[in-house]
Design goal:
This protein has 226 residues and is an alpha/beta fold. The chain has six helices and seven strands, in the order βαβαβαβαβαβαβ. The chain has one domain: NAD(P)-binding Rossmann-like Domain (Rossmann fold, 3-Layer(aba) Sandwich). A seven-stranded parallel sheet has the order 3-2-1-4-5-6-7, with helices on both faces. Bound molecules: NADP nicotinamide-adenine-dinucleotide phosphate. This is SDR family oxidoreductase. It holds the Pfam family adh_short.
């Protein structure tokens, strides 16, 4: 049975990923900060193991990695993300910016460092970092968004370096943009439904080969320039 580990699986895109993989018969390690309150996640039928995980907590990551040491992880999905403060130029909250980096940029690398051997021992050997087109330098035509944009741009660089460094272990690493999606983060007026985003991303993930490592994919399968 293939296995996927998903961070931020209690709602939004992460929850939809958990449902989608569980329906297809995967073993799902679903991580969230407050499992007690994760009602939707708990209602998913299938082989779903819930884990309490705050991605900025290195000790907890190490603990979870030890708890499931014997389990290969075919796909690690670094989905947990935080938009950060929505403040215009001149009103930057530097503490919240630093926290946003801890979650969006450092969280996925911490996860990769702790779970690299679980992924290396699997059949699929894939790490998927949920990034954002807002982290693309070349796609930035509207400015602003310093905090979120820079945290995802940093994640893109982390993804690229990881792709190169983990090639010798046969692990592929991709960054993906889920679209502007109807979640708490994306807002209810966003143009892309959660199901359209996640079914598109599932197709992208299924098609990825070692030749694609280090690429940045849109949810429709097209490549996004860095
Ligand atoms: N929605 C969009 O339009 C859009 C566009 C581009 C990229 N993305 C990316 O897609 C991913 C999923 O976002 P979403 O739209 O599904 O947003 P969402 O509904 O706000 O969900 C975010 C998830 O991340 C979790 N999370 C936040 N900080 C965390 C932390 N420190 N440790 C562990 N979990 C944490 C949240 O947990 P809590 O419930 O405990 O807060 C929640 O499960 C994010 O990486 C986001 O940046 C979204």
């Amino acid at each position: 049975m293939p296995t996927v580990l998903i961070t931020g699986a209690n709602k939004g895109i992460g929850l939809a990923f958990a449902k989608s993989f569980a329906v297809d018969g995967w073993k799902v390690h679903a991580c969230c900060r407050q499992p007690d309150k994760a009602v939707d996640l708990k209602s998913i039928e299938g082989n779903v193991a819930l884990h309490k995980l705050e991605v900025t907590d290195g000790l907890r990551l190490a603990g979870l990695a030890r708890e499931i040491i014997d389990e290969p992880i075919d796909i690690l999905i670094n989905n947990a993300g935080y938009f950060g403060p929505r403040m215009p130029f001149g009103e930057t909250d530097y503490d919240d910016w630093a926290y946003t980096f801890l979650v969006n940029s450092m969280g996925p690398l911490r996860m990769a460092e702790h779970f690299v051997e679980h992924v290396a021992r699997s059949e699929r050997r894939l790490i998927v970092n949920i990034s954002s087109k807002m982290g693309s330098l070349s796609a930035n035509e509207s400015g602003g968004g310093y905090v979120y944009r820079s945290s995802k741009a940093a994640l893109n660089m982390v993804s690229k370096s990881l792709a190169i460094d983990l090639q010798e272990k046969g692990i592929s690493v991709i960054a993906v943009h889920p679209g502007h999606v109807q979640t708490d983060m994306g807002g209810e007026d966003a143009p892309v439904s959660i199901s359209k985003s996640v079914s598109g991303l599932r197709k992208v993930i299924t098609k990825v080969t070692e030749a694609d490592t280090g690429k940045f994919f849109n949810y429709d399968g097209s490549i996004i320039p860095w």
